[in-house]
Amino acid sequence: MSSIAFDADLQDIFFTVFEQLDADGRLGEIARFADFDKETYQATVEEAARIATEVLNPINGPGDRQGCKVDDDGNVTTPEGYAEAWRTFSEGGWIGMNADPEVGGVGLPNTIAMICTELFSSAATAFSMYPGLTAGAARLVHKFAPEAWQLPVATKMFTGEWGGTMCLTEAGAGTAVGDNRTRATPTDEPGVYLLEGEKIFISGGDADFYDNVVHMVLARTPDAPSGSRGISIFLVPKFEFDDDMNLGERNGAKVVGLEHKMGINGSATCVLALGADKPCKGWLLGEEGQGLPIMFHLMNEARIGVGVQGQSVAAAAYTYALKYAKDRVQGASVENFKNPDAPRVAIIEHPDVRRMLMTMKVLVETMRALLYRVALYEDLSHSDDLEESKRKKLANRVDLLVPIAKAHCTDLGFDVCVTGVQVLGGYGYINEYPLEQLVRDAKIMSIYEGTNGVQAMDLLGRKLRMKGGALFMEWLGDSQKLVQKTSGDFPAEAEAIGKALGHVGQTAMHLGALGQKGKLADAMLQATPFQAMMGHVVLALEALDQARVAKAKIEAGEDSAYLHGKLLNLTFFVKNLLPEAIATGKAIQSGDTSCLDERLFA
Amino acid sequence: MKIGVCVKVAPDTDTRIKISGDGAGIEESGIKWIVSPYDSFGIEEAVQTQEAQGGEVILFSAGPKDWQTQLRAGGLAVGAERAVIVDDPALAGTDPLGIARVLAAGIASEGCELVFTGKQAIDDDNVQVPAMVAELLGWPHVSFVTDFSTDGSTFTATRNVGGGTQEVVTGSLPVVITAERGLNTPRYAKLPAIMKAKRKKVDVKSLGDLDLSADDITPAVQLTNFSLPPERPAGRKLEGDVDTMVQELVRLLREEAKVI
Question: Model pTM?
Fold first, then answer.
């Protein structure tokens, strides 16, 4: 029983998606979303907030303490209340919210689905993994499964009758997924293989609230080339089924253990044995050797999804900490600190607490803006109603920002949760309050779905160089345009952000030059600092853009403390957080390579 | 069977109410408006009855046409078929009897045989309108109902009468039933239903459409002044030895709090 009520910040969510990004206007121009409007989007998000608050949040703390169990037959039992929540999710259509109606989906834009996901994950991260992973696997089934199965199996999954997982990791193949060893041997039946091996760290690997689970398994066929080109992907069900979706024999994919983890304890992280005590059949998706390209169809979605998780736990931590700080009375105000009889005040009146809360607020709100923007661009970039050049540019921007959305939002998400614990003091450290769980739940997010180190290398080594650097140059150009556009309203802040953009450009050139000289290790040593630096400037731009919208509304007569808060966000970001980016840029350009000295750690 | 539900839209339960400048109302800006929660129990009961008996659930509101946003999300998305909103400038100053006249006229014009509503609205807590609607329709009513069933012509309703005692009322339709907490658990709207609700019909009517005029709803009661409850006084700490404190406590309970 958590001692602070969960709250969804619908005011900020609606400001960001409708006022700042004009998502309803821009999505309204796309034919496939023509059936929706702002009122429908709003009703959807409000209902998601209700479910998050009333159904999911109450099972979050107990689920963490109870955890999952597995029996000798490989059947997982999830915490109490999970089955009921899954039923609410399935019946309500929330697993397939942005899926195609032909597979039981509702066809909502990713932008709106992301907001709902944020709310669900904010209320109960561990539970939200099951619908998230099921939807991801269902998208692969819909596109790549044997044709007769594409619609019926994906429908079973999107409507929650069956679950789904992604099985990439093995004991010897984690980040280096190309080192996969699981074997897939063809049988006489075309497209059907026998799999042998062991997968680990399988999130939501089994559950007691659906009839069947469909694993997407990476494995290597005989004579396949080594490395990632030799990897194929297979559909491996727990129970076999016929073309009418009637369940048959138990297949030889079996959960043989659960990991004992730091957090997300309600999500069963499974060890999955393939073909250990009976043959394990797998059906090839696509063609042999296409495992990674097929899996990469989900890459952007999955990485953005984890970024949303990072932001979502930060949002929860911020709202909890804010409520607590307003209620908790402790100490006299700093002006009266020498007077023992001075009235005691709520801790929100203490400057250091305000500084922590402001840091949390500005990061939560700018991360929200970044993520919604990426989702909106993703929706628009897939629309035939837009000119091709515009679509390409939007897709480029998504590609560039994905590693930042993933890495920066999960790193900062964790930091914000830690600050939340600090605001609550001793009460943040004990499990009577929900903050300590948020910290534990948040830590995995910088690790899975490509560690943040890998994201940073993707940004520096790949995204910055893609199309001759065009993605990066387009972003710099558009950002400078925003700076110019806002320089009248916010001269000092716009100038500071403009300079910071210049630093990002110089730092990227510096690292690019190292690469050209063949000093790859020297450059990659700075990948994470560079990602953090650019990430901070990306968030500063969101603060600037939000302030622009808030100021226009204030000038139009709509004044409120909330809108004024957006102006303060900008000032605070520029004066307090942006200098970190500049300093990081200077550190990167100092060229220090002491970490790479051979005598170190010798 | 046509089943009516009277619905009021009210500020969300955790709203911090501020009194407006003239003292005769509340500040409405920044308020989140919701279907009054007891009315949600009424909507759920109507939908469950419709699912068992067939027919159609119609929502009735006397208020601004903007309420259709809440009626769609909180009613049409969870199974009600359509809504009637009576929006007329004359409604602004009316009282519970005026509202009841409007709702009763709407219900009569649609030929409903059964009406549900919340036991009270959560904003002004008047607990007046449902009984008045029943009276104007010439129907019986059962209030504060926690269990309800009907076979389409007769009904059985259970109500709490205090002290743990329950009263079971049986009778014939038509009837007005007012919902108490515990009657049911309102369902969550399903995504496809939220999409469908957008296309469901909301009729916005004037008083004239129901053969009423402003004179019919002239208020007998006027709201002249609003004030917030006084702030709770600070606690008091008793000092001294136990006997002194006990004596002082008893004296305070008797003379100041007047509870013993």
Answer: 0.93
B201: domain range? 2-217
Contacts of A40 in chain B (CB under 8 A): 194-195, 198
Q: Is B168 inside any structural domain?
A: yes
Fold of the A298-450 domain: Butyryl-CoA Dehydrogenase, subunit A; domain 3 (1.20.140)
User: Residues B246, B134: one domain?
Assistant: no
**Same structural domain, B238 and B213:** no
Whether residue B250 is found in the same domain as residue B125: no
Q: How is domain A36-295 classified at the architecture level of CATH? A: Beta Barrel (2.40)
The answer to whether A93 contacts chain B (CB < 8 Å) is: yes
B239 and B168 share one domain:
no
Cβ within 8 Å, pair A36-B195: yes
**Cross-chain Cβ contact B195/A91 below 8 Å:** no
Q: Which residues contact A178 (CB under 8 A, 6 or more apart)?
A: A227, A228, A231, A292
- Look at residue B149 and tell me if it is in a domain: yes
**What residues form DSSP beta bridges with A184?**
A195
Active site residue A196: no
pLDDT tens digit at each of 260 positions of chain B: 999 999 999 999 888 888 888 887 888 877 889 999 999 999 999 999 999 999 999 999 999 999 999 999 999 999 999 999 999 999 988 999 999 999 999 999 999 999 999 999 998 899 999 999 999 999 999 999 999 999 999 999 999 888 889 999 999 999 999 999 999 999 999 999 999 999 999 999 999 999 999 999 999 988 888 888 888 887 888 989 999 999 999 999 999 888 88
ipTM value for the complex: 0.88
Q: Is A119 on the interface with B (CB under 8 A)?
A: no
DSSP string, A91-137: HHT-TTTTS-GGGT-----HHHHHHHHHHHHHH-HHHHHHHHHHHHH
Q: Is residue B224 situated within a structural domain?
A: no
Reference A432, options A155, A134, A152, A62; nearest CA is: A62
Q: Which helix (H) or strand (E) holds A154?
A: helix A147-158
B150 contacts B49 by C-beta, under 8 angstroms = yes
Q: How many CB atoms lie within 10 A of CB A549?
A: 17
How many domains does chain B contain in total?
2
User: Is B222 part of a structural domain of the chain?
Assistant: no
Chain A: closest CA distance from residue B69 (Å): 7
**One domain, residues B153 and B256:** no
